[in-house]
Amino acid sequence: MAKGFLSALKGVDAFVLSLDVMDISGETQSDITHNILKTRLDERGVPVPTTVITELQNDLDKINSQREGGYCGSCYGGVEPEGGCCNTCEDVRQAYVNRGWSFNRPDSIEQCVQEGWSEKLKEQATEGCNIAGRVRVNKVVGNIHLSPGRSFRTSSHSLYELVPYLRTDGNRHDFTHTIHHLAFEGDDEWDLAKAKLGKELKQRLGIAANPLDGTTGRTIKQQYMFQYFLKVVATQFRTLNGKTINTHQYSATHFERDLDKGSQENTPTGVHVAHGNGGIPGAFFNYEISPLRIVHAETRQSFAHFLTSTCAIVGGVLTVASLIDSALFATRKALKKTGHSSPVNGGYTNGKLM
């Protein structure tokens, strides 16, 4: 099953944003980049010009060209790549992730200092990110989440390198966001023709809109978690010309939590509430796919059914007309008996002289 979405995060820059998927079967997709497009946004929500992005890449190329030939950077204890060298800050960061370590001291790493990693992070601290794309998920309970920093696994647990991004040194990141489009799609909808037909059929039935489209979550806190709970139901359309389109519908609720308040707190009404220990700042989309399926089928009645319906309508009209005629006749007869009928036959009523 494929899932398409488009979401703009105003408080997290594209450099630190990570997209991960995990489900109840134990499958984990960490820091997904395939079929995903991240666009940097300035403070006004306008995409950052590509010339600025190119200049940043050129700076990295200049640093590499200035290094002596045969340069081999240290991986600082991380898992070394195939070449055995970590020549960029990103290489060291990846080596740390592969080792299961948090990348929390970039200023003590030579490559990061040369590239101005911390300075670039500060420069982008006021930027946002627009993320768009598709990811494939299994038809089981799972979640898709956006968080600052990359995730890594150690001892069968998923951990996140949040320290460089959430420390209080001016690099403020929050998860204020707007969901422009969030939909669950079937494999059929990878076919553009079927996707268009499926959209038209949904519009006819009035189910084209997705519940979370246009939803906005706001916060000014760094340690804040948004959770969306989605109930997904498979939907199939069967047309008269024999085409079958598989898609999905979903319903949604949401919940927000300030992680700074800890695992226990009192509600405004004084009720004591305990939360699960810990929590990760970000936006979590927890989905549950139902084993049921809704089928919308177009059907055409036979000519015999048309004739039967026509005869039934004609018979109904005649029956109603007969009832009206009987009612009018009975009313006229009753009026005659009470002597209130109008004069007829030259002033005679009922054949008698007045």
UniProtKB/TrEMBL annotation:
Domain of life: Eukaryota
Domain Endoplasmic reticulum vesicle transporter C-terminal: 75-325
Signal sequence bounds: none
Segments crossing the lipid bilayer: 303-330
Transmembrane helix among keywords: yes
Pfam families named among the record's database cross-references: COPIIcoated_ERV (PF07970)
GO biological process: endoplasmic reticulum to Golgi vesicle-mediated transport; retrograde vesicle-mediated transport, Golgi to endoplasmic reticulum
UniProt keyword terms in alphabetical order: Membrane, Transmembrane, Transmembrane helix
Gene Ontology CC: one annotated term: Golgi membrane
PANTHER family to which the protein is assigned, alphabetical: ENDOPLASMIC RETICULUM-GOLGI INTERMEDIATE COMPARTMENT PROTEIN (PTHR10984), ENDOPLASMIC RETICULUM-GOLGI INTERMEDIATE COMPARTMENT PROTEIN 3 (PTHR10984:SF25)
Family, per entry: Belongs to the ERGIC family.
Protein name (database record): Endoplasmic reticulum-Golgi intermediate compartment protein 3
Organism: Trametes pubescens
